[in-house]
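quick one before i forget lol
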Amino acid sequence: MLRVTMISTGEEVLHGDIVDSNAAWLSRLFFQHGFPLSRRTTVGDKLEDLAAEIEHCSLTADIVVVNGGLGPTTDDLTAQAAAIAADSGLEQSDYWVQQMQDKYQAFGREMPKTNLKQAMLPEGAELLENPIGTACGFAMKLNRAWVYFTPGVPSEFKKMAIEEILPRLTSQFDAAHALDCHRFYTFGLSESGIGQTLSTVSLPAGFEVGYRSSLPFIEVKLFTPRNAAQATSLQQLMIELLGDNVVSIGRDIVQHVGQQLVATEQRLTVVEQFTGGWLTNWLQDHSESRSTLEQGLMLLAEPAPELGNDDSLKEAITIVSAARDKAGVQLALMSGAYYDEGVTVALSTPDGSWAQRVKAKRKYNHNALRSVVATVMLDMLRRYLDGKPVIGQYEFLVSEGDVFLPAER
């Protein structure tokens, strides 16, 4: 069994000033390709500590990934620490100096001399390309391990891991445990409830189910052996058991809704009061949803005078229908004001308009509740586009009433 270790560097990571998202991302990537991490560690910006950790990991692991510390400043010490661990010197890569100079020239700037530090690599190290930054990576055989050194910038790190490191690992080692990951997303269910529902599913040997909770969704992941024949049917069974609270498969809900809107050639307008632009901004995440959004409007977030539930639902339908007509689009969504711990949301379509008032069963902070309410809005649209009941059932929300007004024919 291969032992794989990751070393994250930097005082800001060590002391929690920034979240180490690179480590979580690499752990998922390597697991799916048959190289699960057996150890993760973090070291601050102290040369002796970093050199000692690199040497220790090279004696106890087969693969080591060191992340961060390849920049041009004095606290970027990884290359020097690697040289100490290998008992070697540093040598300049003329090739990388030219690469950096070309990048600066493309932006009409002169490269600072401090960047030369980024071309100083341990003697004999193999350079790893970085087409989008000035920090090249490098690889070296040290003791029992292959050690890969990577920049800390997430976009550069991820590109290097996928394009430079993974191909080397698959050619150097037998990825006998490589897995496929089949994922789908749920909204309105609890992790314990999902686990209870799926406990009836009998998994073949080598199959595993995992969960990742990220408010307001729970991602369900089915890990299977590579190209397993049963994978598709087993995933479909899980989706059927969880019902229409499965909001998307293999992609997030925004991308799913955007692709549905493009396929049906429909456009959308959004009116937001309590959510304050949350959904409008969220729809910018993917090109499909972005291209089908006609406009996003924000109303004053101050609560309107108290209305009874029936009145607030009727008012919401009036507003969302008027917004759709005025924009000249097929679809409109809205969130109303927050009062008495609840929010009215509505959807207007060519077939009619729906409104519902929802209240959270537990306390959320303001932004978390905005996210939940925006997701209810988007889920109403998703349900309509997928031909499912527009008003859903959510374990963590109380429905205080809903209404449907058919379109006049």
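fyi The chain has a mean pLDDT of 94.
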